[in-house]
Amino acid sequence: MLSPFRAFSQQCSRSRACFPRSFHSPLQNDQKQLSTILDELSEPSAPTVSNPNAPWVQQGVRRRFDNKLFIRPHYFSHDHRFKGPPPFSKRPLIGPGKKKAKQQDVFYRLGVDPLQEASNDVLMSSFVTEMGKIKHRAETGLTTKTQRRLGKAIRRAKMMGVIPVLSSARLPWN
After folding, report:
1. How many CB atoms are located within 10 Å of the residue 153 CB?
2. Tens digits of per-residue pLDDT, 41-64?
3. How many CA atoms lie within 13 A of 7 on its CB side?
4. DSSP for the chain, written as a single string
5. Which of 158, 163, 149 is nearest to 107 (CA)?
6. Strand, coil or helix: what is 128?
7. How far apart are the two ends of the chain, measured CA to CA in Å?
8. Which helix H or strand E contains 61, and what residues bound it?
9. Burial group, residue 118, by CB count within 10 angstroms (0-12, 13-18, 19+)
């Protein structure tokens, strides 16, 4: 993975002005930082955060460091400290939107009820896969109401024996 600070590090490698005069190893810096954190936590009189930009402060909540707590290096990363929204906070798009579905829906535009067409094997088999499953709304492009009624009509057609249960109907032109 490319570092976001690659250009900055290349500039710093050319000139010495980027680095401080007294250079400490990352281990020494971490030890100093951890000791300051523990010193602040040991003070009972100061519940407020003195430095809001401190690395151990996350969105107004101070992370606790206990004596027997194991700290992974990942805990100091930006991804761990500032977590984004949950991966599926928004419901995924199942089919077309309401306006687009009304434009695409054949049953809606012609004013035909799919339940009345349950005995039409050609029409019902066009909405069924080769394995006999009902196609989902993203494939058919129907409105939610029509899709529900179409599913009911296909189930009725299967129970009546109009279309096969486990496969799509064999049409003469297929």
Report:
1. 25
2. 776 654 455 555 555 544 445 556
3. 1
4. ---TTHHHHHHHHH-GGGS-SS---HHHHHHHHHHHHHHHHH-TT--S-S-TT-TTEETTEEPP--TT----GGGGSHHHHS--S-TT-SPPP-S--HHHHHHH-HHHHHT--GGGGTT-HHHHHTTB-TTSPBPPHHHH---HHHHHHHHHHHHHHHHHTSS-SSS----TT-
5. 149
6. strand
7. 50
8. strand 61-62
9. buried
Contact 127, 140 (CB under 8 A): yes
- For residue range 72-120, list pLDDT tens digits in order: 787 777 777 776 666 666 666 688 889 999 999 999 999 999 999 999 9
CB atoms under 10 Å from CB of 167, counted, come to: 13
Across-strand partners of 62? 57
In sequence order, which residues have a C-beta less than 8 Å from that of residue 123 and are 6 or more positions away? 117
